[in-house]
Amino acid sequence: MKIGLIQKFPGSHREDNIRRGVKHLEEAAREGVDLVAFAELAFDPFFPRKPATGDVTRLAEVIPGPTTDIFARKARELGIIVVLNLFESDGERTYDASPVIDSDGTLLGVTRMIHIADYENFYEKDYYTPGNRWVHVYHTSAAKVGVAICYDRHYPEYMRALGVEGAELVVVPQAGTAGEWPSGLFEAELQVACFQNGYFGALVNRVGREGDMEFSGESFITSPEGSVLTRAPAGKEHTLIADLDLSRVADSPARRMFLRDRRPEIY
Hints:
Distance between the termini: 36 Å
Shape: globular
Order of helices and strands: EHEHEEEEEEHEHEEEEEEHH
């Protein structure tokens, strides 16, 4: 299958951001892409960079709703799978959420971020309720797809659960800044997760300056053997496209040995 990661800078007007997102989706479809993924809060400012004031539900949206309706129509028209990331409103609670839309326009489900960060420039506990849904793998038209939203990727037990559930590809919508962690650590972390669990990883990051934060871009794709297959440039808008040979999943060390030989009754 062929995937595309949309690494773009969100402007200040949401409607324009969505129009641009649709345009990038159409461009990727012309390249023969089967699945397109967007970065964390791809159509909005990064709200958590400042502590919340007032009712944050005014910033959020329902799922399904206007944004998912737009992308569901385009997914059906183009025959392409779409992984979004939105600030979701559900009653009085709000979530960092990734809807997954299949190539026929069906909303297969919504993954909510489970682990919530809270430190300088990432005041996420002010905005997000911890996700309350079991780790889910979506059986799309092209692959079995899991989602690990930003902070969730730091938890080996979450990444292992996606492998146990049979994910062939794990999409990671991220908002990561330049120099946030030691050089190469983000890549190394996902490389290890893919090697240990036997799936492809696709991290798609925000890019550009917002206030005092500089989102780095540098989206990348890793293999089930733990290698980095390709990466996007730092500090630039870019659509990263790659062909993934899904037969490598079944032949990976994790699927041939590691998952087979687990002993969860002991640990």
